[in-house]
Design goal:
The chain has 308 residues and is an alpha/beta fold. It has 13 helices and eight strands. Helix 3 links the parallel strand 5 and strand 6. The longest helix has 15 residues. It is globular. It starts with 14 loop residues before the first strand and ends in a 5-residue tail after the last helix.
């Protein structure tokens, strides 16, 4: 059973902010900005991108440890999720990556190369960011997703394990069936894909349920999946025309996740310089099931690729 005593979160240095990228239509991104302690100059910036059915809240256990290690940590709710606005379109991963690029460069004024970390859908966005803006990225860590456009995606997208790829891509019907039953639907994913069921407490499930019960939230969450085939076409075309991404990459999976078996081939299909590692004693929800090892593995890789 999930723990009734969740780990304490030190959020004393977190700044919760909104950024308006556009007013018509409204593209507003909510993000957390956490600096290093004691007014230290950061030794780099980490942009950490969540997945589905989650929000920036999924990184609650790792934001402060990364900042304590000397990094400025930026954790947004991507377009359509959490406390960000819920626009009607723009859910290809290239558009979602462009949102985050504008947040980093135009809103926050960060000009040096950043370190990207993405999980699940966030991994797809991190790849789009790294491949389209490689001169602005020091390294990228992503995983726990079959990347559209790769052989692993084509083999897995119609399997029973990925049934939600098809279900959530159907127009309108998923919203009609899941609306009012968000907690049941989300709980199914958390339980089915975890090794450590205590990682997602009742309070955590309440938080995610509240986020996906907001007006438009389910539509936006499902639109992310409805864009997968466009994402696949864009990613294949990009590799054909530009070649593999040259940004140093780490494929990071849970050691008890079924997706771990796809990582080596999948990352190698789209990156020239890469390695693959696992988060110990973890299923899919790596930053929540074993936040300490997640911080260790990400921190070690980032440390080898200092921002320029």
């Amino acid at each position: 059973m999930p723990s009734i005593n969740p780990l304490r979160i030190d959020d004393t240095r977190w700044k919760q902010r909104n950024a308006w990228l556009s007013t018509v239509p409204e593209i507003r991104l909510h993000y957390i900005d956490c600096p290093p302690p004691n007014d230290q100059n950061p030794k780099g910036t980490l942009l950490i991108i969540h997945g589905f059915p989650q929000t920036s809240y999924q990184f609650r256990h790792v934001i402060t440890p990364f900042a304590d290690a000397g990094y400025r940590v930026i954790v947004p709710d991507y377009r359509g999720a959490g406390d960000s606005s819920k626009p009607r379109d723009g859910y290809t991963k290239t558009v979602m990556a462009e949102d985050l690029f504008k947040l980093v460069r135009d809103v926050l004024g960060i000009k040096e190369k950043i370190h990207l970390v993405g999980h699940d859908i966030g991994g797809m966005i991190a790849h789009a960011y790294a491949s389209r803006y490689p001169e602005h990225v020091a390294c990228v860590i992503w995983g726990e997703c079959p990347l559209p456009g790769t052989s692993a995606y084509e083999r897995s997208k119609n399997t029973l394990a990925m049934y939600h790829f098809t279900f959530q891509a159907v127009p309108d019907l998923p919203e009609a069936l899941v609306s009012g039953r968000e907690r049941i639907y989300l709980k199914h994913f958390f339980e089915r894909l975890c090794l450590n069921p205590a990682a997602i407490s009742r309070q955590d499930l309440d938080q995610y349920t509240m986020s996906y019960s907001q007006p438009g939230a389910l539509r936006c969450g499902f639109d992310v999946y409805r864009a997968f085939e466009t994402d696949a076409d864009e990613n294949r075309k990009w590799v054909q025309e530009k070649g593999k991404c040259k940004v140093p990459a780490l494929g990071l999976s849970g050691d008890n996740s079924a997706l771990e078996k796809l990582a080596q081939e999948m990352v190698g299909e789209v990156y020239e310089d890469f390695e693959v590692q696992t988060v110990e004693a973890s299923g899919h929800w790596v930053a929540e099931e074993n936040p300490e090892d997640f911080v260790r593995k990400v921190g070690a890789f980032v440390g080898k690729h200092a921002s320029a």
